Predict the structure.
Amino acid sequence: MSTDINLPIYLDYASTTPVDPRVAKKISDHLTLDGNFGNPASRSHKFGWKAEEAVEEARSHVANLVGCDPREIVWTSGATEANNLAIKGIANFYQAKGKHIITSKIEHKAVLDACRQLEREGFEVTYLDPTEGGLITTSLIDSAVRDDTVLISIMHINNELGTINNLKEIGSYAREKGIFFHVDAAQSTGKVEINLSELPVDLMSFSAHKTYGPKGIGALFVSRKPRVRIEAQMHGGGHERGMRSGTLPTHQIVGMGEAFRIAKEEMFADRKKIQAFHEKFYSSVSKIEEIYVNGDLQNKVSNILNISFAYVEGESLIMALKDIAVSSGSACTSASLEPSYVLRALGRKDELASSSIRFSFGRFTTDEDIDYTLSLINHAVERLRELSPLWEMYLDGIDLDTVDWQTH
Amino acid sequence: MAYSKKVVDKFENTINEPAKYNVGRFDPKDMDIGTGMVGAPACGDVMKLQIKCERQGNTHIIKDVKFKTYGCGSAIASSSELVEMLLGKTLEEAKEIKNIDIVEALELPPIKIHCSVLAEDSIKQAIEDYEQKQ
C-alpha cells in the first residue's frame, strides 16, 4: 500500500465538493478594491456596470450548462432557497387553481420541510413512496393526482442513492395534466446532461457547491415558455425581476458561473474517470458476503454508491474507517440516531438502513484513494462482523426475524 | 459527534485485537456459562455477554468473559469496558456494577448513555441465566 497517500481521504462529494482552484481564483478577483467589487445593481458608475457584466456572464454559463435562456435563471442562496422559492412561490401564486401538491418521501429536507410548511398553511401534500429501487415513476404520480393538484416536485438525482428519475416522462405527464413541475437538481450539474430547452420542466433548483463552486449560492430556473410565475419569498429592492430581492453576491455568482462553465467543458472527462472508480469499487465490494446496494444500479449516477453491510452497524463502520470521510445518509441526518428516512422509504429494514454507507467520488478522487479505501473496508467489515452477534447468528443459520428481541 | 479519546481508543483496541479484548463465544449450554443478550437489531444495538464462573466456597467467581456487540462505536466500547470490570469479580460484586460506572470510565456523551444501560442489562441477564442453572 502506498505510503505517500494523503489522509484523510474525502469520499463525500455528494455532501459538498472542494472549490476548484480555477473557481477560487475567479472569486478572489471579485472582492477587493483592485478587483471587481462593485454592486451589480449600481447604475450610476463603472464599478456597478462591471459587476453587472460579471454577473450576467456567470448567468450565461449557468444557462449554457442546463440549456436554458439566461433570463430564466434567478440567483438564490443555494438549492435550499431555490426549492423553497419554487414550491412556496408556485403554491402561493396559484392557490386559486388548487391546493394539492405531490412530492416523494425521498426528497431532500428542503423540499419536504417547505411542503410541511405549506400543509400548515392549508395545502394538502401527498408524499409518494418510491419504487424499491428508489425511483419515482409517472404511474406512482398518476395514482396520486387530483383535480386540484397544482404542483409536482420530484428530484432529479437522489442525494443518498444516486438514482436518476426520468424527467422527460414525468414532465410530459405533468404538462398533459396542466400541473406545474419542479425539479430539485442539486446533484445533477456536471454529472448528467440537462437540456431545459427540450425538457418539460417548469422550475429547477441548482446548487454551486456540489459542482466545485462556493457554498451559499444557487439558482432557480423559472421557465418563460411556457411562462411560469411565482410569488417572491424575499422582499426588498426587487432584484432578479422581483423574484428574489437582495444585493447580488458578485464573488459567489462568478464562482458558480465559473464552476458551471468548467462543468460543461469537463463533464465527459470527469464522468469517464468516475465511472472507472465506480466499477472498481463495486466489483471489489460486491465480493463481500451479504452486502446490498441501495438504489437501482441500472438507473443511477456513478459518483454515488450507497451500500448496506448487513450485520454491521453503520456508525461503527464509519468509525472503523477512520481516515475515510464518508457519510451514512445525508449530512443533515447524520447527527441523529435515526436510520436514513430515504432508505426506510425504500422498504429497507431498520437494521439494513442503519448499516448503510454512502460513498461519493469526485473530480479530485484518485486511484490510490479508491485502493486504500477498499482495503480498509474489507478489513473493517471483517473485524466488525467478528464482533457482531448478529453475524454469528446468521452463520449459525438463525433467522433474525424469528428472534424475540428485547427492544429498549 | 465527537467521542472522548477513551471511547475511540477502547473501540479501536477492541476491533484490532479481538482475542485480547475477550471477543468470542462460549457454548451457552455449558453449566458454568451464563449468557445475556439484550437490545434489538432494529434499535441499532445488540449486546451478547457470556460469563464463565467457578464456585469458590459460598460464592461464584467470574473467571472468564466473552462478548459480541453489534452497535455504534460507544456500544462496542461500553461492552468492552464492562468486560474488563467483570473479570475476577464475584457475582455479588458484579451485580453492583451500574451503568454510571461505564459512563464515567468512558466519558460517554449524554446521547450515548443508553449504551451503558444496555451493558448493565446484559450483565444482569447473564448472571440470572447462570444462577438459574445452578
The first helix of chain A runs from residue 21 to 28. Residues 330-336 of chain A have pLDDT under 50 and may be disordered. Chain A has twelve helices and twelve strands.
